[in-house]
Each structure stands twice: as C-alpha cells, then as structure tokens.
Write a structure and sequence with these properties.
The complex is a heterodimer. Chain A is α/β, with parallel strands linked by helices. Chain A contains nine helices and 27 strands. In chain A, a hairpin with a 2-residue loop joins strand 13 and strand 14. The longest helix of chain A has 18 residues. The termini of chain A are far apart. Chain B is of the alpha+beta class. In chain B, the strands form two sheets. Chain B has a two-stranded antiparallel ribbon. A two-stranded antiparallel ribbon of chain B has the order 2-3. In chain B, strand 2 and strand 3 form a beta hairpin. Chain B is globular. Chain B starts with a strand and ends with a strand. The relative contact order of chain B is 0.36. The chains are: A alpha/beta, B alpha+beta. The interface between A and B is medium-sized, with 20 and 17 residues.
Chain lengths: ~400, ~60
C-alpha cells in the first residue's frame, strides 16, 4: 500500500477529529481536509442531554479542542457544507456547494441522524436532539413547558426524562418495548430502569406506541397511544433512535447494510475507512457491531487512521459506555444486550448499587454497574479476557 | 509535564486509571478522578498523554511545566 498524500475526513465530530489527529500523530504530512455538515467547530455530544440541558454548563464548554489545537492540525476545514456524493473509482468526493475533492485516502465519520415520526415534526413544541443547537432549543422549550412527553426510552430519552424531572416538569416516557433500555441491558436491568424513573415521578408508559400527535393552532398538545390512551404534553421529544448518515453514499459502491460496512480493520473499500457511529465492523471477539457511543468514536477514529496509513490491525476494543440518570451512573463494557445471560454480583436496590456480568457461550462478554465505578473497572478485565463466567463470579465474590 | 484534572467534567469512566494507575485514581463513591501526581515521572508521560487523549470527558489537561 502506498502512503496517501491527500486525505479527506468527512465528519467533524469526535470520530472525524480523532482520526485527523491520529493521522498527524502517525506521521501523515500530506494535505488534510475536514468536511463537516455543521458549521460549528468540533464539539462533544454526551453533555448535550445532561449538563447543557440542565443549564449547568455554558454552550462553549462542549468544544472539543481549543482553537490553537485545531490550527496545529494543519488541516483545511470545510464546515457547514455536507458531502453529497462519493465516487470510489475516481476517488472523488462531491460537496453540497459544488466542490469536488479528489482524495487518495478517505475517512467516513459522518455520524447518525435522528429518526423521525412519520408525521408531526412540523408542529411547534416537537423536538429532536442531536446537535448543540437542538439541545439549546430543547432547553428553552423545557423552561417554558409544564408537561413533557418523551417518545423513546433509549439512552437519550431516559437521560432527558431525568433532566426534565429535575427541572420540575411533568414527564411521560413512552416506548413500545416492555421497559426502558431493554434492548441495551436486557429484562432485569431494564426493570430497574423503569423503577428508577417511576421513583422520580416519571409516568412510564411501556409497551405502547404513539399513533399520532395532537395539536392546536400549530402547536403540539399531546399524543395518542395505540392502547387507547392519551398523554397531554406541551413539549414532545422524539428520541426513537438514529440512522447512519449514509444517504449520500448511495451508488458509491460501498456496502451500506447497517451503516458503512467495514472489515476488521475499519476498511470499507481501498483507500476508504469508516469510524464512529456509522461504522459497522466484525469485532474479533464480539461479532459484527456498530457502536453509537462516545468512547468508540475516539477508539475507532484512531484505528481507522492507522489502517489508512498502512498500519492496519484488527480493531478489538472493549466497548465502554455510560449514562447518567438522576443520581445513578450506569457504566457498561462489552455486549450487554438481552440475548446474553445475566449474572448478578451486587444488588442493593435501596442504594441504587448494582453490578452484573453478561455471558455468551459460557464466557463473559459484558458487564454493567450502577454507582460502582471501581467495580466497573474490575469487571472490565473479565470482558477483555472473556473469562468463564463462573470463574469471574468467584473472583468478584472475593474482591 | 504538568497535569490538571477537571473533576466537574469527569464522568468517572476510569479509563485514565486503566492506562496510568500511578498518576490517576478514582473516588470510591462516584468514580470521579483523583490526581495522584500533577508532575509525573517522565517515564509515565506517554501513558499520561494517552490517558488525556482517550478521556471521554476531556477532563485531563496537560501543560509543559
């Protein structure tokens, strides 16, 4: 593989920025261009649904790098302009303003786009949350609202429900699945999540889907549910997941089955790598995955950059993610979904302390803790080593 | 090298402790970072730079002392 001399990074958030930095760190001295659909310089997203929404951080605090650090990258920044087409044969990228960028190395880190309900988004008071502007608009909305309906009890919906309660609003959390975060953590932990929200005064409406939003004079007034119920709300957040931002890659020849499909080294095509929320790859130990979490953006951005420079190795991180809801910090490693077997280590419900391992085929493949950060770190070891779960439980009982 | 940590930004992920346990620790209760040494041994500098780089909360700042 010849070393590229002209690399374009599509995506100016955590994964794209990290990839760009890793390229320079690993000795790339050629032309580096960073394309970002948003006009803001790179910023961090996890605080948007927490500190920004709560109002405890000023918006400029989410900036990912100081201006001098961005300048030191020696990159051309094309911000506020989206990529619209890719020709992998000609190795050219087309942008919305008509610019065509030739490349010999391409990093795709364009992230995800929030899913929408089929109708209703034109109404006043209906929100999505992905960008900093979304978060600031949502905060203004929450400060003026009295009752909030949150459609979708994933990480985003659950975190916003917690903040909205802290702000003193009436909150209803709605999801067609039996409990919040059940896909992420399985039945048992999802039940704990439901209890946590209920204890804090959230109306949890599980197992029911929204059929339509109701409105008056162009503003949302609530929503109808398929169990016949109605929820009154003057603000609705739609948090029903995201889809990889790959529409512009149609016809590029890349495999777009669940994001940008890569090999073990994050390579999607010759000279093309992908990283972050939209990149799917076969994890050597955990199987094919696509990870929409902050830690993976950094890890995979780094790995993808190395691949592009000819130093490819299988990308085999121990995935880590966390969520903060009320006074509970949930931390998780590896795969924690409902298809794995759960083994509880600590279950102190009153103190909101919990720890468990997940196993698949007899070996530890995931771990979750509530308010036990040190234990989370200890359990990570078993995920990394794929310890037989009986052995891991014995170990946990003696430490 | 001078290390500072932002305990308000820290999310308690403990990634820094995994990489540089001689320099970083976590509080028992909430996992927030505790700095063990703000002027680490030069042998640790590469690990500390890596910890700052991967911190998911950008809570570690390095300056030349």
């Amino acid at each position: 593989m010849t070393t590229p001399s002209r690399i374009v990074v599509v995506g100016a958030s955590a994964a794209g920025l990290t990839a760009a930095e890793a390229l320079r760190h690993n000795g790339f001295t050629g032309t580096l261009t960073i394309v970002g659909a948003e006009s803001r310089p790179p910023y961090d997203r996890p605080p948007l649904s927490k500190q920004i929404l709560r109002g405890t951080w000023r918006p400029d605090r989410v900036t990912l790098r100081r201006p001098d650090a961005l300048t030191a990258l020696g990159a051309d920044w094309l911000l506020g302009v989206a990529a619209v087409a890719l020709d992998t044969d000609a190795r050219e990228l087309a942008l919305a303003d008509g610019t065509v960028l030739p490349y010999d190395g391409l990093v795709i880190a364009a992230g995800v786009t929030p899913r929408r309900l089929p109708t209703g988004h034109e109404l006043g008071g209906v929100h999505l949350l992905r960008t900093l502007d979304d978060a600031l608009t949502l905060r203004d909305g929450l400060l003026a609202a009295t009752s909030v309906a949150i459609v979708g009890a994933g990480f985003l919906g659950s975190e916003v429900a917690a903040v909205a309660r802290e702000l003193g609003l009436d909150v209803t959390l709605i999801d067609p699945l039996p409990n919040p975060l059940i896909r992420q953590f399985g039945d048992h932990v999802a039940q704990l999540c439901a209890e946590l929200h209920t204890q804090h005064g959230v109306q949890v409406r599980s197992g029911t889907a929204v059929t339509r939003l109701t409105s008056r004079d162009g503003r949302v007034t609530g929503l109808d549910l398929d169990d016949g119920g109605h929820v009154t709300a003057d603000l609705v957040l739609v948090a029903i997941g995201s889809t990889p931002a790959v529409g512009w890659l149609t016809g590029s020849g890349l495999n777009l089955a669940d994001g940008v499909r890569c090999d073990q080294t994050c390579l999607a095509a010759p000279g093309v790598v992908a990283a972050g929320d939209l990149a799917s790859w076969p994890h050597p130990h955990l199987g094919r995955m696509r990870v929409e979490h902050r830690m993976n953006a950094t890890d995979q951005g780094t790995a993808a950059a190395r691949t592009l420079l000819g130093a490819a190795t299988p990308f085999a991180p121990v995935p880590y993610f966390w969520t903060d809801q009320y006074d509970v910090k949930i931390q998780a490693y590896g795969r924690t979904g409902g298809d794995a077997e759960l083994h509880i280590i600590t279950d102190d419900t009153a103190a909101h302390r919990f720890a468990a391992l997940y196993s698949t085929d007899g070996r530890v493949t995931g771990a979750v803790t509530w308010n036990l950060p040190r234990q989370a770190r200890a359990l990570r070891h078993h995920v990394a080593q794929r310890t037989p779960w009986r052995q891991a439980l014995r170990h946990a009982a003696t430490t | 090298m001078k290390v500072t940590v932002d305990q308000d930004a820290c999310t308690g992920s403990g990634q820094c402790v995994l990489i540089a346990p001689e320099v970083f620790d976590q509080r028992d209760t909430d996992g927030i970072v505790v700095l063990l040494s703000d002027s680490p041994d030069p042998l640790r500098h590469e690990d500390v730079r890596e910890a700052a780089r991967i911190c998911p909360a950008l809570a570690i700042t390095l300056t030349q002392s």
